[in-house]
Automatic annotation (TrEMBL):
<dbReference type="InterPro" id="IPR038056">
    <property type="entry name" value="YjbR-like_sf"/>
</dbReference>
<dbReference type="Pfam" id="PF04237">
    <property type="entry name" value="YjbR"/>
</dbReference>
<dbReference type="InterPro" id="IPR058532">
    <property type="entry name" value="YjbR/MT2646/Rv2570-like"/>
</dbReference>
<keyword id="KW-0238">DNA-binding</keyword>
<dbReference type="GO" id="GO:0003677">
    <property type="term" value="F:DNA binding"/>
</dbReference>
<protein>
    <submittedName>
        <fullName>MmcQ/YjbR family DNA-binding protein</fullName>
    </submittedName>
</protein>
Length: 123
């Protein structure tokens, strides 16, 4: 998949996030598309002066590993909580990003939904 425009990248993020049980999309006060489960954010995306930005919830260990790759950076303001961002992801990034978005969901979701998702997806 190759996504060159912001609308296409947002649609890809939306399709990944909303495929997760009970995930919802909310437009926050800054105009960012925020994806939540049970009131907890797990992905934030939006357009800025540099193009399309995508941030996702992570743990500190995964964050450290991702930050070794120059494509990823610590999310401003919430990076100290483990959040990681990528700017204008290329087509080849989306398989990895799908896994990272699913992991972000599992970090934020209640145990019953984690169990349900793991049973269905056998991870």
């Amino acid at each position: 998949m190759k996504y060159q425009d912001t609308a296409g990248m947002l649609e890809n993020v939306r399709s990944i996030c909303l495929a997760m049980p009970e995930a919802v999309e909310h437009i926050d006060g800054f105009g960012h598309n925020t994806f939540k489960i049970n009131g907890k954010s797990f992905v934030i995306s939006g357009e800025n002066e540099k193009g399309f930005g995508l941030s996702f919830k992570s743990d500190r260990e995964t964050q450290e590993l991702l930050l070794q790759n120059e494509r990823f950076f610590k999310t401003p303001y919430i990076g100290h909580h483990g959040w990681v961002s990528i700017q204008n992801p290329a087509g080849e990034d989306w398989d990895e990003l799908t896994d990272l978005i699913q992991e972000a969901y599992l970090r934020a979701a209640p145990k019953r939904l984690v169990k349900q998702w793991l049973e269905v997806n056998k991870k």
